[in-house]
Specification:
alpha/beta; Zinc Finger, Delta Prime, domain 3; 21 helices
């Protein structure tokens, strides 16, 4: 029994697959593709232990396609090219028999490694399935991302985890040889953190370490058997989002003590420092914005600095930025302005660009008057010419409303001196 329990009871069909009904349920996106026989390249994004590898294997089996696999941890460009060549020779172009290339932890591939996949995906030599625990928007190059559908897998809920345990006990011959009673499961579920593989690994450890064939599973037994309880933080699951939410809300609420506490929770749990820094860049613009424009510069520099430095010293840089952001005056006027403008665009659609603002690169456009009445601001006193820049039906509409802070009071005074009564800033 050298094979881990999670591997021994790995599902082989969609019918056996637990959870992710939005993808593999009767009306799921992947189910529909398999039924239609037209499988798109895809990125499976989700926390560890949510069945990404299993799903890729099931897709290959149920679509009856050759299956190739690479791990981003130990594969280079040479390995990729060798597999792509095998796939090219083994599968036809743009047919239902296109081989599947599964790449685990695709976010670990460098840009050049990801670039090497583009031609094969574009020409249809392979159907790519990449698995990642990191946000593909940041970790997968745009050219490759545009050629793939991104599907999000969710952490297992309580019922899903209990179903995993039940199925393992029903299917695995070693577990069936023992008399196991699940009296309490809270500790198992808590320690798993929504990770199905971790749940089965812990369960197997507890059963293996128990004496005799009659085993009563209790929370106390599980806690005794598991030597070190991992920090309750699942990197990309509920705790991940709850703690980053608490961190950002502490910054927004101008509480540096709470901000550094939640920062410490993330650092101690091994959170990616780039993720933390990215969220501070967003906060610097969304929550501080024009009240202190330097905050965005500070946060952007923090993101660059932590990439150079890395942990453990990066924690100091993150702390400095978090305290600075928490101690800055706050304004969400830039956030609200773009939100208001987008809402208007959705309501009013593609309004015509006023003739004076249009570009006139050709003689015909010039003859049609494009740009003819445009007033070049620098030709006027104070570098300002009062003309209409919005579509006529939106004239005088306020998308930007200044907040109550010193910096925006200056901006408001500047704008009101020029626009007089047209806009109420």
């Amino acid at each position: 029994m050298n094979e881990p329990l999670a591997e021994r009871v790995r599902p082989k069909t969609l019918r056996e697959y637990i959870s992710q009904s939005h993808l593999v349920g009767p009306k799921g996106a992947i189910t529909r593709q398999l039924e239609g026989g037209n499988l798109a390249s895809m990125i499976l994004w989700g926390p560890p232990g949510t069945g990404k590898t299993t799903l890729a294997q099931i897709i290959a089996a149920e679509s009856e396609r050759p299956f190739y696999t690479l791990s981003a941890i130990n594969s280079g460009v040479k390995d990729i090219r060798e597999v792509l060549e095998k796939a090219r020779k083994g599968g036809g172009l743009f047919t239902s028999r296109n081989p599947i290339l599964f790449i685990d932890e695709i976010h670990r591939f460098s840009k050049s490694q990801q670039d090497s996949l583009l031609g094969a995906v574009e020409k249809g030599w392979i159907t790519l399935i990449g698995a990642t625990t990191e946000n593909p928007s940041f970790e997968v190059i745009p050219a490759l991302l545009s050629r793939c559908q991104v599907y999000t897998l969710e952490s297992f809920g309580k019922e899903d985890l209990l179903n995993l345990l039940k199925r393992a006990m029903d299917q695995d011959s070693w577990l069936q040889s023992k008399k196991i009673e699940l009296q309490q499961t809270n500790a198992l579920l808590r320690l798993s953190g929504g990770d199905g593989r971790k749940l089965l690994n812990i369960f197997e450890l507890v059963v293996s370490a128990s004496k005799g064939d009659s085993i009563l599973i209790t929370d106390e037994l599980v806690s005794e058997m598991v030597n070190r309880q991992p920090l309750r933080y699942d990197k990309t699951g509920e705790q991940h989002y709850d703690i980053i939410s608490a961190f950002i809300k502490s910054i927004r609420g101008s509480d540096p003590n709470a901000a550094v506490y939640w920062l410490a929770r993330m650092v101690e749990a091994g959170e990616d420092v780039k993720f933390i820094a990215r969220r501070m860049i967003i906060a610097a613009s969304e929550d501080i914005g024009l009240a202190n424009p330097t905050a965005l510069v500070m946060a952007t520099n923090t993101f660059q600095a932590v990439q150079f430095i890395g942990l453990p010293e990066a924690r100091i840089i993150l702390s400095q930025c978090a305290i600075y952001l928490a101690g800055s005056p706050k304004s969400n006027s830039a956030y609200m302005a773009i939100k208001n403008a987008q809402q208007e665009v959705r309501q009013s659609g593609d309004l015509e660009v006023p003739i004076p603002l249009r570009n006139a690169p050709t003689q015909l456009m010039k003859e049609l008057g494009y740009g003819a009445e445009y007033a070049y601001a620098h030709d006027y006193p104070g570098n300002f010419a009062a003309m209409e820049f919005l579509p006529e039906v939106l004239s005088g509409t306020n998308f930007y409303q200044s907040s109550d802070n010193r910096r925006e009071e200056e901006i408001k005074a500047f704008l009101k001196a020029r626009w007089k009564e047209k806009y109420d800033f």
